[in-house]
Amino acid sequence: TVAASLPGGEFVAASPAGLRAALSERDRNMTLLSVVGADGSRREVARLNEHLRHVVGGTPVRIDHKGPNGDARTSWILLPPGYRPGTPVATIVNVYPGSFFSGETWSKWSLDDVHALNDHILAAHGYAVLYPAIPVDYDQLPRDPLKGLPEQIFAAVDAAVAQGYVDPDRLGLQGQSYGGYTTGALVGLTDRFKTAVAQAGIYDL
Predict the structure, then answer these.
(1) For the whole prediction, is pTM greater than 0.85?
(2) Which residues make Cβ contacts (< 8 Å) with residue 79, sequence separation at least 6?
């Protein structure tokens, strides 16, 4: 017997005797939870993420560019739905030093993923979201963890501007954890960002 507790406090067991099962299905960005009986009858129990039902997320695009020392890098940008090629748009730069945002293929979250920074929501509101490649060797962190970060981030920003995706006069910044720390530092080192949101960072060393 396999047992599960469903939202709303209902308890459902799937067993040879009861011949009932909990069924999870996807409908666009929602998850539907139902109970199905042996006779084929079906009763819907809950709808999850119904507020995302009609939301259209962004489209990831790879940006190959050079780092500040001329090394080859891959950053990514999430473009808003209906984006017209060659049209610079307001852009949020999502920063996190390390390898999280770099890679040959897009491997980040989707619209219905649970994450503190669901950038598909920003894309749905017409923003692009840029993920700069910021390689960091965590085994050999510099004494100053901010050393070289602005140059690495703006290497990706400038490449995205040059490729026609980003409006350089409408830049925002966000980050969480190490990205929050980076965000807090960057607003003290540059005035290129019009707004910034820092989450869960360390700001007073």
Answers:
(1) no
(2) 58, 59, 60, 61, 89, 123, 128, 165
